[in-house]
Amino acid sequence: MKTGNLLFIGIVVGLVLFGFFEFLGFDPTYGGIIGAVVVGILIGKTIGKGSEKYAFFSIFTYNLIGWILVFLFTSDGKLALQYGGVALSALIGFALIMAFFYSVIGFFGAFVASNLSSNQQDERL
C-alpha cells in the first residue's frame, strides 16, 4: 500500500474516531489519546520500520482538522471566535498543544507496533 494512501486512511480513521468520541461526549483528552493510539498502531503495523513520522503527521493533521471543526460548529468555539483577541489566541494555542501531545502519543504507538511486528517476523524465520 502506498504511503500517501495510508496517510489518507489514517486521517479519515482519526476523524471518524474524533467525531465518534465527540458525539458520545467523551472527555476530549481521553478520546484523543485512544484515537492517537489506534491510528498509531494501524500505521505502525502496516508500514513497519520508519512509520513513526507518518503516524505523527497523520495524527497531527486529523487533530487540527477536528479541532477546527469543533471550534466552528460548537457554541464554545463560536463564542471564542466572536470575542477574538486573547480568547481566540488561547483557543488556537490549546488546539496546537493538544494536537502535538496526541501526535507524540501516536508516534510511540507506531514505534511499539512496528517493533513488535518486526520482532514477530524475525521469530518466524
TrEMBL record:
Transmembrane segments: 7-24, 30-47, 54-74, 86-113
Top-level taxon: Archaea
Protein name: DUF5518 domain-containing protein
Keywords: Membrane, Transmembrane, Transmembrane helix
